[in-house]
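Morning F.,

Quick status update on the modeling queue. The single chain you submitted on Monday has been processed. Sequence for confirmation:
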Amino acid sequence: MKKDITIMAIETSCDETSVAVVKNGKDILSNFISSQIDLHEKFGGVVPEIASRKHIENIDYVISEALEESNMTIKDMDAIAVTYGPGLVGALLVGLAEAKAIAFAAKKPLIGVHHIEGHISANYIENDLEPPFISMVVSGGHTHLVHVKDYGVYEILGKTRDDAVGEAFDKVARSIGLGYPGGPKIDKLAKEGQNDAIDFPRSYLEDDSYDFSFSGVKSAVLNYINKCKMKEEKINKANIAASFQSAVVDVIVDKTIKAAKKLGLNKVALAGGVAANSRLREEMKKACEKEQISIYYPSIVYCTDNAAMIGVAAYYEYIKGVKHNMDLNAIPNLKLGNRI
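Structure tokens below.
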């Protein structure tokens, strides 16, 4: 194996078309992201068919921009990496088809990457972090409490039994008229409200469970709004946002710390789009400092979907000799830890 390993990575699992060039699993030479938020905002969420078509329009341009920014060409790459699940099947297929075509034409190894592994791996970019550690993965489609035993070796300790945390944020945001995407808008509005102005429930489930449930608190918010309307009482949107966010964050932080202490691990890493939430970062940092646990999280740009994190995850697959054939297919419901 030569000294430097350079990988071009493609990420199209949802509504961001992203391509990155990553060297040695840490140096991000480029990370170009074309977002579709403005396109989907008027629909109140991502429309899969529109997302897929936009990926087709964007992918060649995004690749060109990423290569130009890195001052490299396809010939300089040691491998081509791509997200193959989980995600929207049409969106995944666009990136996968592009990656396979490039890998085949350039005679480069193809490496399929699990999207959630990418989010966890984003923590390696700016931090001196090595397994084992606890990772709390929080995003629009996923809520996983994970024991990262080694690079690419995961044990899921708990996950949501209903809504993903980001999904709950989006639904609550919609209910108070904030629109899509809900997470950043709830976070911003919550700063103007009181965290415990409204006593929304915190669902801890069974005493020994690391699973999550956010449908109850979401329903509690909707019921509260309906009661206010029936009584013709003024609705304080900032207090709703702050109280809802506080209820969700409390459960996430408590279960994460509980898992770290039980397993005797002194490192916790946040991952996923909701890891950008300011209250979650603040409360997790406080809890970790109290228990003398080190806390890690990526910069905002590496929290949301991006190809840099896919390139980082692919690096650790590459050095283990992992590569995929041209029959690699998209798996929209791919489970963490499962591989082709």
